[in-house]
Amino acid sequence: METYGLNFKKSLGQNFLTDVNILKKIVNAAELDENDDVIEIGPGIGALTEQIAKKAHSVLALELDDRLIPVLAETLEPYDNIQVIKQDVLKADLKQLLSKYFDGQHRVKVVANLPYYITSPIIIHLLETGIPFDSLVVMMQKEVAERLSAQPGTKAYGSLTVRVQYQMHVKVAFTVSKTVFVPQPKVDSAIVVLSPKEVLTLPKDEQLFFKVVKGCFQHRRKTIWNNLQSFLGKQVDKEKLHQLLLGLDVSPKTRAEKLSIDKFIQLTNKIIDSKI
Ligand code: SAM
């Protein structure tokens, strides 16, 4: 960065990793080999990219900060299996990029030290592409990792947990101290491995399911009864709603954090069936 006269852009979540041991641990968690094509989000100056390229068949790295493109051209010059493009990942048509840059003959994985200010939107964006990723191995704030991997009945369990665990198995591989980043962020980090569930239980309407989950968690301290009433609107038939919840064996006084993903799916289906 000094050579190029560049400063770190906090607004782009630029906390770079320099410890080779940690970089290698991330790559190991992704279990990369020559059968893998990897998308990296935010290569920075290419420290992680280099370690990925040593193991994988090829890497496509998407970097938003155009000041870093010439830096990456220099640091990654020895590798002929890396392509770097200037691209905002949230605006990327990843399916199109995949068919342009990958040969379709390899597994597709994502490996990244994510920009922390948009961790959740990136993960949702990746899940919404419909690309059958073999895995997503991503570094994020420890607190977000806890939310992604949370179990029902815990404080960290929320709409993000349900949204992600609906499709993916989530495992926290290891945590990383804030001291290994340059510049040092305020919080520790964790590497999370997300892998697709082999069998998905699908709600009758997926979009409604996402909305119901958000609605139930709208006010965390309110009961499911209160949140559902606000979500469904004032005109909702209260007796019908009461019966609907009891039919699911859910007490109206309970809070959303107690409900499993399957319960949210059943709840969505009942809302549809009862035309409430
Ligand atoms: N991979 C490097 C490392 O591990 O040291 C840098 C990781 S740093 C936490 C996040 C990187 O994401 C930065 O290089 C930043 O410029 C880039 N970035 C931020 N927002 C982005 C976006 N919307 N699309 C693509 N890259 C982005």
From TrEMBL:
Keywords: Cytoplasm, Methyltransferase, RNA-binding, rRNA processing, S-adenosyl-L-methionine, Transferase
GO molecular function, one term: RNA binding
InterPro entries: KsgA/Erm, rRNA_Ade_diMease-like_C, rRNA_Ade_Mease_Trfase_CS, rRNA_Ade_methylase_Trfase_N, rRNA_adenine_dimethylase, SAM-dependent_MTases_sf
Any single GO CC term annotated in Swiss-Prot or TrEMBL for this entry: cytosol
Taxonomy, superkingdom: Bacteria
Residue spans crossing the bilayer: none
Protein's UniProt keywords contain Cell membrane: no
EC number: 2.1.1.182
Annotated catalysed reactions: adenosine(2085) in 23S rRNA + 2 S-adenosyl-L-methionine = N(6)-dimethyladenosine(2085) in 23S rRNA + 2 S-adenosyl-L-homocysteine + 2 H(+); adenosine(1518)/adenosine(1519) in 16S rRNA + 4 S-adenosyl-L-methionine = N(6)-dimethyladenosine(1518)/N(6)-dimethyladenosine(1519) in 16S rRNA + 4 S-adenosyl-L-homocysteine + 4 H(+)
The protein, known as: Ribosomal RNA small subunit methyltransferase A
Species assigned in the record: Liquorilactobacillus aquaticus DSM 21051
